[in-house]
Amino acid sequence: MYQANGLKIHKSAHINVGAADRLQLFSTSSAMLWKSTSPLQSHVKIAADGGVDYEFDPADVKTVETMKFSEESIGLHTPIGPGFRRVNIGDSFDILDTKFKICRKLGWGTHSSVWLVKDESDYYVVEVLTEYFSKATWNGQRSYFDILERIHKECSKETNKHPGTDHVVRVMYVFEFDAHHAAAMFQRVGPDVNIKRSFPYRSLKPDVGKVLCRQILQALDMLHRDCEVVHMDIKPASILVQSPLSTQEISDLLLKDPPMTYPGSAWTFISREEIQRRLQHTEDDSSVLRQVSEPVSQPLPAPPLDRPDSLTFKLSDFGDAQFLSQQTFVGRISPWVRSPEMVLDLPWNEKTDIWAFGCTLFQLLTATDLISRIPASEMAQFDAMYLQAMARSLSTTFPSEMLEDTGREDLKHITAFRDLRKPPPESRLASDIWFRLALAGITGKELEAISSFLRRCLTLNPNERPSAKELLDDRWLQ
């Protein structure tokens, strides 16, 4: 960790270089522009996922300008930042001679911001990709549009239609939003199933969880077997619930609950063209920041959950998905849903989605993470403790062949990793999963059935872990 002018810089932050005399430190909520007294003698390597290894001397720092963002960091153009596009309520764009108007901000994520748009007759959802992710998609580093096309073709089959096609978010168009940003348009859906954000409940009731489980497993079965795609990012934010609102009801909602912006203004960069002009004229030392308004994310309201059989859940967010035949990276998988084979650097396939889905379902049913947060400073130490927490939560011993075949030489000297070969204490023979489901109020036969189902999803050895199709036959879902 470096420190300069009273500001701490953690080496885990992402660093990008915009020019010889500009160094940018940014996160999703704030950013700092550093102006050096001389060109920075930095050693910078930009990784495929945007992460960066770097070295620089804090003594070079002359002044600092700070930007604050309530949501995504708009205006940080690549390579200075991820390149979220500034989108304004009321903006319009054309697709195939049809004009669409931006009506409301629905949310944002690592790769994009998401907007409700309308043509003359109906509402849709548009995902505006960041400049970084747009370039990665255009130059073939990511297969996002190819995967969307594969899913769309599978969903469009007129014969032998898979039931999972009703439970994925389907793309309508992919297009250039502008010269720097790609975009995709989808049929409208409701909010994600993040309990704290979308629903007035502490956790999902088992009857709702069962409906969600059956539908998302159908989507995964179609994705894995028919599309030969691994999602790679299963989490509550990747599962949406269909909004029951009609077109007229959405119009009424926008009148009663109009789009909002955050009070005050965010500080962000001036235009790309102005930045380039100033970098060519170094005598211009005026601020490169300006104030802009920030739209508030306002997802469509969630439907009531008192009639589970009327609910439709859909799998979304395919930004990190990969074809099974083209495994090129491990994606931005949340550290709390990574499968053991991925942590151990072993061969992986679609079964890694099953592990992540088991972690996600447990979280939705109990409002807690399966594996508690682990304090660790080094990645190897963190991963060893994470593997140990897996075995502890499942009250089992790690398969010895997985530990022996691991490609992670950095783990082998860590005590927590060596302890994985020991059997669990007798005091932990009762499953931690069973106990925590009981604490969430699940009882009787339902408790036994759900606990058994989750343990199947969370089988440590991927070769023994069931497929989505096999899980659909589980007794809990019948």
TrEMBL record:
All residue ranges annotated as the Protein kinase domain in the record: 100-477
Matches recorded under PROSITE patterns: PROTEIN_KINASE_DOM
Alphabetical list of InterPro entries matching this protein: CLK_kinases, Kinase-like_dom_sf, Prot_kinase_dom
Record keywords, A-Z: ATP-binding, Kinase, Nucleotide-binding, Serine/threonine-protein kinase, Transferase
SUPFAM superfamilies named among the record's database cross-references: Protein kinase-like (PK-like)
Pfam families for the chain: Pkinase
Keyword field contains Transferase: yes
The protein's name in its UniProt record: Protein kinase domain-containing protein
Species of origin: Somion occarium
